[in-house]
Amino acid sequence: MATPFKVFRDNQKILMVVFGALLMVAFIILPPVLQFGFSNRQAELDEGEVVVTVGQEELRADQVRALADKYNLVAQVITAAMQQSLQLQGTPNDPMPPIPGVQIQQPTQQSPGGPSFQKVTAEQAVFFHAWGKKADEMGLVVDDEAVREFLKETSGGRLSDYDYQALLGFLIGKQNPLITYDYFFEQLRDVLKAQKLQALMIRNSRVATPSSAWVAYRNMNRTISAEMFPIAASNFASKVGKPSESQIKELFEKYRQQPNNPAANQIGFRQMDKIALAYIKGDITNFVEAAKSQITDEEVAAHYEANKDSYRKLELPSANPLQPATTEEAAPMETTEAPAEGEQPAAETKPMEEAKPEPMAETPKAEEPKTEEPMAETPAAEKPAGEQPMPEAPKADEAKPEEPKAEEPKKEDSSFNQASSSNVQLVSYLQEEGADPKPEQPAEPAKENAAAPAEPMNEAAPATETEPAKPAQPATETEPATAPAAETTPPAAAPVQYKPLAEVQDEIRTRLAQPIAQKAMSEALSEMRGELQLQFENYRYAQSDENFDKTKSPYDSNAIETMATKLGLTFGAMPLVDIYEASETTFAQESQHVEYVLDPASGFRQVNRSLVGEAFQFGTPLFLPRLFPGAPQDQRFQREAEVQYIYWKTEEKEGFVPTLDDVREQVIQAWKELEAQKLAKEEAEQIAKLVKSKEGLVEAAKTHNAGDPIVAENITYFNQLPGQQQLTLGEISGVPSEEISQAMMDALFGTAVGESTVAPNMKENVYYVALITSEAETTAELRDNFMAGIQGALPDSVIRETNSEVQVVTTIIWQDYFDPSEIEWKVDPVGINRGM
Known about the structure:
about 850 residues, four-stranded antiparallel β-sheet, alpha+beta
C-alpha cells in the first residue's frame, strides 16, 4: 500500500503547481478583496447612520455638517463684503432671494442695522441643498461671469477679486489652508444655482404689484371700528362622528413627518426630543433686604452728599409762577419798539442788531416821517395791532388800481423789499451815530423828541409793519424784537432745589445694597453648584460599573430643596416635554435673558437667550449642572445678571417618526378637531351672510349664547413701537392679543363699512362674526391719498409691508414645490445642530 509520502513524490510537480497557485491567491489576490469588503463596512460604520433623505439621496450626519459648513463659509464672506462696502460708502445689493446665513437687519433706534451673519442650521442646509438638486435636474448652469456679477452687485462694485480673497484669508486665517479663493468660488457657484432657481419661481420683493401695494397701504392707514362675537369650534365637538380607517390613514400620512406645534397652529405626529429639567433659581431681590440692613445711615448720607446733583427737584417752566410776569414785562417792550421802527424795515435789522441793550432808543428817528397815512387807518390799541392789519390788507390791495393811492403803498412795499439808496444812507448814518455812544446810552433824548407823536405812532406803526411784512421778510422784524426781551429775563433764575434726604434715603440704601446682594447671591449659587458638581462627579465615576443605572439621579431632591431654601434660593422642576410644549410654560417665559454683543456692522446687537432653548440645543449629559446665563459673551459688559439659574437634565427621550399604532388616538383627536373647526367656520359664514346691522348682530349673538357682542373701536392693522421699524399686529379690544392673527386682520380690513365677515383666531378654533361699523377715512379717500403719495415711487412703508407678504407667499411656494416626503428626516435635526 502506497504511503502519502509516496503519492506526494509521484505527483510532486502537480502538487507544487497547485500549492503555488493557492499561495498566489492567498497572498496576492485575497488581501485586496478582503480589504475592499472590510473597508466598505468600516466606512459605513465610520460615517454613521443615515439622518435624512432627499429624494433617493441619503445623507449622513457628517455630510449634513459639510453642507452647513459650505453655506456658512459663503455667508460669512458675503456678509463681510457687504459690511466693507458700507464702510466704503458703497450701496451693496441684498441677495434676492436671500441665501442661507445672510440676514439684513432693519435699522432701529439702537443700531443702524445692516448685514449680519447667522449660523446655518441643518434644516436650512438640507433644504437649500434640495433646491440645488432640482437645479441640476433642470440643467441650470451658473457660469463664471454670473458668479463675478453676483460678487460685484453684493459689494456695490466696491470690492475686487483680490479684496474677496483678502476677506477670505482674514475670516479663515490659518485654520484651514485648503480653503482657497478658487474653492470659495466653486462653493458660491453651488449656492447660486439654488438661488437662481428660486429667483425664477419667486417674485422679487423689491417689486410690488398695484394690487399688493394698495392692500399694504390700506392696511397701514385704515382705522376701523367693529362689533363681533365668537363661534367656538369646541361647541361642535359633539356633532362630529368617528373617522373611518381611510380617513385616519390619510391624515396620518399627511402629517407623519411634521411635529405638532400648537403655538403655530401646526398639526403633526412626529415625536420630538423631550427632556425634563430641575433647576435652582437665584433672584437678587431675595438678598436685597438682608443687604440693606448692612448699610448705615452715615453711608446713606455720604452717598447723598457726593451725588447730590442726581437728586435735584424737577421744575418745569410751566410750573414757575414768575413766568407769566416776565412775559407781561416783555410784552410792552415789544409794543414800544415796534412803533418806533415805523415804516423802514430795511433799516430795522441793522439798528436792532447793533443796539441790543437799548433797541427802542434809536429807531424812532428813521421811522417818524413815513407813518402818517397808516396812522389814520389803525387807531386800535397796541396789543391788538397784530390783528388790525388783517382787515387793512384788502384796502391796500383795492387801492392799487387807483392812481393816487397806489403809489404810496408801493413805496412802502419797496422800503421792505428793496430799500432806496437815500434810505440806506440814512440808516447807515444813524447806525454809525448810535454805535459810538452805545455804552453811554444817548438814545434817551430821542425818546423825548418822539414823545409828541408817540401815541398815534404806537397805534399806527404796527399796522404799517405787519401788513407789508407778509410779502416781505417778517422773520427779521419779529425775531430781533423778541430777542432783547428774552435777554432781560435770565437774572430771575430760581436757585437749584434738591430732594430732602428723608425722601430718597430708601432709594439710596437699596442702591448701595445691590453689590452686597449680588455678591451674596453669587456665593450662594457657587456653594450650591459646588455641591451638585461633587455629586455629579461621583455619579460619573460610578458609570464604569456594568450594573450601574445611568438614568438614576445622583441627587436627593428633598436635600437639594432644603439646602437651596437655606441659602435663599428656589428649587423647581420642569416635566418631560418637547421644545414646543416647554416654550409655553411659565418657567420658559421667566428664564429669558438679554445680552448685547459688538457687531461690526450694526454696533451693539441684542441677543435674546433662553434657558429652555439652550437646554434642548446643547447635548449636555444627564444630571450635569449648568449655570445660566453665566458670564456675558462680550467682556465689555461685566455686570452679572440679577436672576441666575443652575439647571440639569433629569430625563431625556429621543424623538422618532411614529407608526400609526403609536399615535392612533392622537390622529383621531386631531381629525375630530379639524372637523369641528369646519363646522364652526360654516356656521359663522352663514350668520355673517344674514347680519346687516348692529341689531341683527346682537340678535345672532343671543341665539348662539355668545353674550353681548364685543365693541372694538379704533382698530389699526399694525402697531409700531417707537424707534423701531418692525410692525406688530394691532390690538382689538375684547380679543386676547395671543389670539389675534394676520388672517383675522385681513378679514376685518378687507370688509367695507356696514358689511359682515368671519375672522378666525390664531389657532383657527374660534371664528368671530364681525360687523364693520365705521372707519376714520373712506376707501375713496384712502385711495386718493395713496395716489397722491406715490410721486413716481411707492412709499417705503408700503414696500416693507409687501416684502413681508412676499415672505409668506415664498414659504407657501416652497412647501408646494417640495413634496413633504421629498425631505425625510430620520432623526431630530436639532441633534445635528449640536455638533455643528
